């Protein structure tokens, strides 16, 4: 996976040292989108498309998951990760019933934690190998995880903007 045909994100286009600052920027932008009326933020235009709040909750959980994966990859040799069960989490965690202000604050916090973890990486740590299960189990490195995390953030920010702009 080198580029996303849907959103145009290109893996590796950003230097390593810019991953954490970019996360902070996108995290603030995502949190800012949750300031609208709750009924607009929880509405699904189509059954299979998440609401803006559901996308924001997903990004929050991705950030926390990726931070944990980063730490495991720094300790274990070539760890393999189970999927996060993104579709199931939407229902299990009742994403659409969470208070938007709380999710915005949690998104800022999760972004800060993930950005802090990535900003502390040095040299060969970026190259530590792992087996990442998306889109299929593939040998990756921590730098790829950083880029993939940014992709999740930018892609879903675009999803939210598309939905809110259509409203």
CATH-wise, what's the superfamily? Answer: dinb family like domain
Instruction: Please report the total strand number as a whole number.
Output: 2
- Strand order across the largest sheet: 1-2
| CA gyration radius, whole angstroms | 16 Å
Q: Give the helix proportion (percent range).
A: 55-70%
CATH architecture: Up-down Bundle
Query: Globular, elongated, flat, extended or rod-shaped: what is the shape?
Result: globular
Total of domains: 1
> How confident is the prediction overall: mean pLDDT?
95
- Report the structural category: mainly alpha
Instruction: State the end-to-end CA separation.
Output: 32 Å
Tags for this model:
167 residues; globular; mainly alpha; single chain; Four Helix Bundle (Hemerythrin (Met), subunit A); two-stranded antiparallel ribbon
List the helices and strands and how they pair.
Layout: H1 19-32, H2 38-41, H3 52-75, H4 86-92, H5 100-119, E1 129-132, E2 138-141, H6 142-166
Antiparallel strand pairs: 1-2
Please describe what this structure looks like.
It is a single chain. By secondary structure, this protein is mostly helical. It has a single domain (17-166), classed as Four Helix Bundle (Hemerythrin (Met), subunit A), CATH 1.20.120.450. The protein is built from six helices and two strands; from the N terminus they run αααααββα. The chain has helices at 19-32, 38-41, 52-75, 86-92, 100-119, 142-166, and strands at residues 129-132, 138-141. Strands 1-2 form a two-stranded antiparallel ribbon. Helix 1 packs antiparallel against helix 5 and helix 3 (52-75) packs parallel to helix 5 (100-119). The longest helix is centred in the last third of the chain and has 25 residues, at 142-166. The mean pLDDT is 95.
């Amino acid at each position: 996976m080198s580029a996303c045909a849907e959103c145009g994100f290109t893996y590796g286009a950003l230097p390593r040292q810019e991953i954490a600052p970019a996360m902070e920027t996108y995290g603030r932008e995502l949190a800012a989108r949750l300031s609208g009326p709750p009924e607009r933020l929880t509405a699904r235009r189509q059954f299979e498309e998440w609401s803006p709040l559901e996308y924001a909750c997903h990004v929050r959980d991705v950030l926390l998951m990726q931070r944990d994966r980063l730490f495991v990859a720094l300790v274990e040799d070539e760890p393999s990760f189970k999927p996060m069960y993104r579709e199931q989490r939407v229902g299990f965690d009742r994403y659409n019933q969470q208070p938007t202000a709380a999710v915005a604050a949690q998104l800022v916090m999760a972004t800060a934690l993930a950005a802090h973890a990535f900003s502390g990486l040095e040299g060969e740590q970026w190259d530590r190998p792992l087996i990442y299960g998306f889109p299929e189990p593939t040998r990756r490195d921590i730098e790829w995880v950083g880029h993939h995390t940014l992709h999740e953030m930018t892609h879903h920010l675009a999803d939210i903007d598309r939905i809110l702009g259509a409203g």
